[in-house]
Amino acid sequence: MKNQRRSFCNFLQINNIICNVNEGDGKAVLEKLIGIMKRHYPELDIEYTRREIESREALYPTMVAPGLAIPHARIPGLPEALTAIACIPQGCDFGGSTPVKVMVLLLTPVDEPNLHIQLLSALAGEFEDPAVTDKVAGMATPQELLNYFSCGLASIPDYLKAADLMEKFPAMLQETDSILDAVEKFAMTKTGELPVIDNTGDLRGILSLTDLLKYSLPEHLLWLEDLSPIYQLQPFSDMLKTADETKVADIMREEFISANVDDPAVKLAKIFLINNLSRLMILDNAGRPAGVVTLKNFSAKLFWD
């Protein structure tokens, strides 16, 4: 018999919920939630927990959706995941660009990265719509909020998937875009690789900064012992002169390695290792670009995020 799928409410207790919080300082709200955790789990080292939360906040801001902050930490020796929620109808300042109206404190055992990422992903997905955040923030009682999460919301998948780890592409290229268009998009997004789509949104290929360099500096020049004739970067100047005429379709790669949004995380690890990749494109079930997983972020989420 198949196990019943867990949801976020399986890790939430009614006495770990506080509503109608009237506090403008997000750090003060966080202290309230840590205090709640201490009452629930007396063995919790408050100072250690605070340091772990602050160190992650410094690396990766924990405001994961409009109005939602999920300060979190992985705690050695913790027997199970612990959660606490504060509803702040008027919002509080937690260092982000917008006020935090719902704060979820998440503590997980240090040796359960799968559960840790799944809970973060489930919550981020549930609160992606700002209207949901406003609705939850305005709930008057802990029972009302617990009932909301008990309706099967924020469900946790059976295993960690590519969709839980990927980031959406900051931009996409059209196959009819010029090289100049591509250069501008690379500069604006500060990314190193972008998918190329046609006018229907179907994937046609991929273009990276390495591809641009290869196009600008043909391979035969790389074999020159004496590079002094091109010290002035003449090949790059020549490329830029015609950058508004050459199309992305002329230099993109049509063959590349990808994974599906439903692929398990361990498959991504295998692909990274076997192919010595630093970035992996993720496709949806229609074969269209869904996002990207970088080796750096993949490792961060598994080991220390």
Quick structural overview:
By secondary structure, the protein is α/β, with parallel strands linked by helices.
Number of strands: 12
CATH topology of the largest domain: Mannitol-specific EII, Chain A
Distance linking N and C termini: 34 Å
Structural class: alpha/beta
The amount of beta strand, in percent, is 15-25%
Keywords:
single chain, 305 residues, alpha/beta, Mannitol-specific EII, Chain A, CBS-domain, 2 domains, 6-stranded mixed β-sheet, 3-stranded mixed β-sheet, 13 helices
Write the SSE topology.
Layout: E1 17-18, H1 26-40, H2 46-59, E2 63-65, E3 68-69, E4 72-75, E5 82-92, E6 100-109, H3 113-126, H4 130-137, H5 142-149, H6 162-165, E7 173-174, H7 179-189, E8 193-197, E9 203-208, H8 209-216, H9 219-222, H10 234-241, H11 248-251, E10 258-260, H12 265-275, E11 279-283, E12 289-294, H13 295-303
Task: Please describe what this structure looks like.
The protein has 305 residues and is of the alpha/beta class. It folds into two domains: 8-158, Mannitol-specific EII, Chain A (3-Layer(aba) Sandwich); 173-303, CBS-domain. 39% of the residues lie in helices and 19% in strands. The chain contains 13 helices and twelve strands. It has helices spanning 26-40, 46-59, 113-126, 130-137, 142-149, 162-165, 179-189, 209-216, 219-222, 234-241, 248-251, 265-275, 295-303, and strands at residues 17-18, 63-65, 68-69, 72-75, 82-92, 100-109, 173-174, 193-197, 203-208, 258-260, 279-283, 289-294. The strands form three sheets. Strands 1, 2, 3, 4, 5 and 6 form a six-stranded mixed β-sheet that branches. A three-stranded mixed β-sheet has the order 7-8-9. Strands 10-11-12 form a three-stranded mixed β-sheet. A hairpin with a 5-residue loop joins strand 11 and strand 12. The longest helix is centred in the N-terminal third of the chain and has 15 residues, at 26-40. The chain is elongated and about 70 Å long. It starts with 16 loop residues before the first strand and ends with a helix. The mean pLDDT is 86.
